[in-house]
Amino acid sequence: MTDTSAIQAWRRGIRVVGPLCAWMTWAGSGHAVAASLPEPRPEAVALIAELGLPESPTPSRELPGWRPPTKIAVAFADEEQLARLRAAVPGVELVAIGRESPLAQQVKDVQAVVGVCSAEVLEAAPGLHWIQILSVGAERCVAVPGLAGRDIVLTNLQRTSAVPIAEHAIAMMMSLARGLPYYGRAQQAGLWQRDAADRPGVREIGGRTLLVVGLGGIGTEVARRAQALGMQVIAIRNSRREGPGFVAEVGLPADLHAFARRADVVVSALPLTPETTGLFDEAFFRAMKPGGWFINVGRGRSVVTDALLAALDDGRLAGAGLDVTDPEPLPKGHRLWSQPNVIITPHIAASSDTQGERYWILVAENLRRYAAGEPLLNVVDIARGY
Predict the structure, then answer these.
(1) What is the model's pTM?
(2) Does 199 qualify as catalytic in the annotation?
């Protein structure tokens, strides 16, 4: 450990005694707990910098109810992943949640759980203090009865799936622009249809305006790619009117309809909250620029499905790309399936050949930080739902 990092560690309340060892002060107890604390892995440092993962302003050891963990339960990890996680928290017992015994029995004496958030877990684990969910969306977890009333810290995987989801949104937009749904159907039918009457007009996207609704991790990556393709990017966010340099203008929720009137493409990357549920309704689609496209890689329940179908039926929308729907899964026979200008994928935009690696890098780093009493990454505001 360098002199600078040693000073920083001391200021955080850790007395450095070696490159892998420290004395952690158990907040409020007056006792010193010896622990072997690995340094952050290089891949974790790189991921945090690359994605701008947000760090809590409060060290874990200063949170009410924290104590050095002795046992943590982990779901959905294979042996290789468990080995990586155990290396991040030497001295802490990590148990894999399996099906061989009741869940309540497996979590009853843990201080943290990775991958499971349910009423059963809350009831069975009175000492539970931290939950790391293995998803970006936290709406199901924050809705668990009793969660908000306990001193439980919740973290998610925000930003780790931003790259594949953004690429998925751009792929949907480009497919609609080039008429690929139509040509895909013609290919399956074995038809060479260059001049058919129902052939869609294809468009160039350079110089057109794309509106990102939800300028978080995913929305930022969508905006970055759209601007690189020559589009003007505008955005709506909940917090402030500032954004990255590749976004021309940022508005607040009250500006949504005004911004929609200017956009050739609207991409929703919103989380699901009471404020975003049903946000894209009849009034929104009427406000959209005629002939625009609507892409949803956020949450299905943010869209009033009947209003979306009506906008497609009367031509106000030229097309839509949906990775999420309401209802979800979309049932067989639903009218959305038969829309000729709609692309539907089954909530898989986050999938990629490298996505899982990002997940486990973040989980390992958060385990290390929690055991060391350091600030966690990607802390969810339970009251806001994201």
Answers:
(1) 0.84
(2) no
Query: Is 384 part of any domain?
Result: no
Catalytic member of 299, 358, 368, 369: 299
* Contacts by 44-52, CB closer than 8 A, 24 or more apart: 44/361, 44/362, 44/364, 44/365, 44/368, 47/160, 47/358, 47/361, 47/362, 47/365, 48/365, 48/377, 51/159, 51/160, 51/162, 51/217, 52/159, 52/217
> Which CATH number do you get for residue 117?
3.40.50.720
Residues 241 and 361 in one domain: no
Q: How many CA atoms lie within 13 A of 363 on its CB side?
A: 30
Catalytic residue among 286, 316, 347, 357: 347
Pair 130, 239 in one domain: no
Is residue 118 one of the residues assigned to a domain?
yes
Q: Is the domain of 10 the same as that of 149?
A: yes
What is the mean pLDDT, run by run of 10 residues, along the chain of 386 residues?
35 33 39 59 95 95 96 95 95 93 94 97 96 94 93 95 96 97 94 85 95 96 98 96 97 98 98 96 97 97 98 96 98 96 97 92 97 97 90
> What is the spatial distance between Cα 277 and Cα 302, in angstroms, rounded to a whole number?
4
Q: Where are the alpha helices (DSSP H) in 2-159?
A: 3-11, 42-51, 79-88, 103-107, 119-124, 139-142
Peptide bond into 329 cis (omega under 30): yes
The residue range of the domain holding 90 is 3-160+356-372
Q: Is residue 22 part of a domain?
A: yes
Residue environment code for 367-384, b if the CB has 16+ CB neighbours within 10 A, otherwise e: bbbbbbbbbbbbbbebee
129: number of Cβ within 10 Å: 21
Residues 124 and 211 in one domain: no
What's the structural domain count of the chain? 2
Could you tell me if 178 and 154 lie in one domain?
Answer: no
The answer on 226 and 264 residing in a single domain is: yes
Residues 122 and 174 in one domain: no
Reply yes or no on whether 168 is catalytic.
no
Confirm whether 318 is domain-assigned: yes
Q: Are residues 41 and 133 in the same domain?
A: yes
Respond yes or no: is residue 240 known to be catalytic: no
Cβ 135 vs Cβ 157: under 8 Å? yes
Of the residues 262, 328, 334, 357, only one is catalytic, namely 328
Q: How far apart are CA 112 and CA 71, in angstroms?
A: 7
